[in-house]
Specification:
about 375 residues; 16 strands
């Protein structure tokens, strides 16, 4: 790892799937590692968000991992934890592609600068960049919903972010909250180990047999792109896709394990009451309620629209109101295949911006100084 310099043409924040893909294409476009660009990673090792996944999430049961450009993923043992497989793969990729990863580097704040962007690190270091590719994903920003009685509930409350294994819930009656794939996988895993579960979702689960369909992903990407073009916040993946109806999930439905009791009305010290008025005693809650995009460090740039989203250009990566800033892993690029493609788009867009900068870039600071 080389020493950081004060200024780079491009800084990439995040070394997950999208950040690594962006780094690969920046090199292909002629930018020199450690001189022209650097990748800042908050983790202390390779793997991105995958390095934090629980051991019982094996590679064979995880969502498909799209290979990074230039290095195929060898066929791993499907029973090996996905966290180990992906961390090993990403680590090898960083070495083979000679990517400039600086870690651990926690970005606290990004501000606009007359020359581009000022990046403030938790270590106290200050960097500037002409262009910025943000690839921070969602893992560091778990979403906790709010229900009456949450603070009065006496049992443990665990979010997906902090799930370690079924042993956290041995001998307990667990309320699993959430309508996505993680919730259904948790329920089946807990049931297999003799843990009683109750499922709560805000709306009725939409099961869909995708079969061998190859076009459903294109349709989902189109819907998400419509949202980001309009500045609306991207909807959760399951809202666009529905839940995959596999043989295992069908068995869960038939057994009654994957039948939702509906939305929570309130929680008691040892109970949950649903919107239909029914009440159940519970010992613990597993909040499989997903994540939100980790973009708090970009708050000073004031990117949010009145609708609450960030308006992205048709290329799916360029932030409309902030030239030189590119978001990958946001909206349509949130999946591993989407992130890989977005990494390439962002790198190409960043290099084009560097080679053909706007005629004039007027920041708030320069505009105010001109009035003095």
């Amino acid at each position: 790892m080389a020493w950081l310099q004060a200024h780079y043409q491009t800084i990439v924040i995040g070394a997950g799937q999208a950040g690594l893909a962006a780094g690969y294409h920046l090199r292909r476009k002629g930018l020199v590692p450690w001189v022209d660009f650097v990748i800042l990673d908050a983790n202390d090792g390779p793997g991105g968000a995958w390095r934090h996944r629980w051991d019982s999430l094996t590679f064979g049961t995880a969502h498909h991992l799209h290979p990074l450009p230039g290095l195929e993923l060898a066929e791993p043992d499907p029973h090996e934890p996905a966290s180990r497989v992906v961390s090993r793969y990403y680590g090898e990729y960083e070495k083979q592609m000679d990517l400039p990863i600086h870690r651990p580097a926690q970005v606290q704040r990004v501000e606009q600068d007359a020359q581009g962007f000022r990046v403030h690190l938790a270590s106290g270091e200050r960097l500037t960049a002409t262009t910025l590719i943000n690839a921070t994903g969602t893992w560091s920003n778990p979403f906790w919903p709010s229900y009456p009685g949450m603070r009065e509930f006496r049992g443990p409350q665990v979010h997906t972010h902090d799930f370690i294994g079924v042993e956290q819930f041995t001998g307990q009656r667990v309320l699993v909250v959430g309508g996505g794939a993680s919730a259904t996988q948790f329920i089946m895993q807990l049931q297999e180990h003799g843990v009683q579960t109750i499922w709560s979702t805000r709306s009725a689960p939409r099961w869909k047999d995708f079969g061998s369909s190859k076009d459903w992903g294109v349709e989902v990407e189109r819907r998400v792109t419509e949202d980001t073009l309009a500045g609306r916040p991207p909807r959760p993946v399951v809202a666009n896709t529905g839940l995959a109806l596999t043989a295992q999930m069908q068995a869960g439905i038939d057994s009654g394990a994957l039948v939702s009791r509906g939305q929570i009305s309130r929680l008691g010290p040892t109970s949950v009451t649903f919107s239909d008025g029914s009440t159940e005693n519970i010992d613990a809650i597993l909040w499989a309620t997903g994540f939100r995009h980790a973009l708090k460090h970009l708050a000073a740039l004031k990117l949010r629209t009145e609708a609450g989203g960030i308006r992205i250009d048709a290329d799916s990566v360029s932030v409309t109101q902030q030239p030189g800033l590119f978001l990958v892993g946001y909206g349509a690029s949130a999946s591993t295949i989407g992130a890989t493609r977005a990494g390439r788009r962002a790198a190409v867009a960043a290099v084009n911006y560097l080679r053909n900068p706007p005629v004039a870039r007027v920041t708030t600071e320069t505009a105010e100084s001109a009035l003095v």
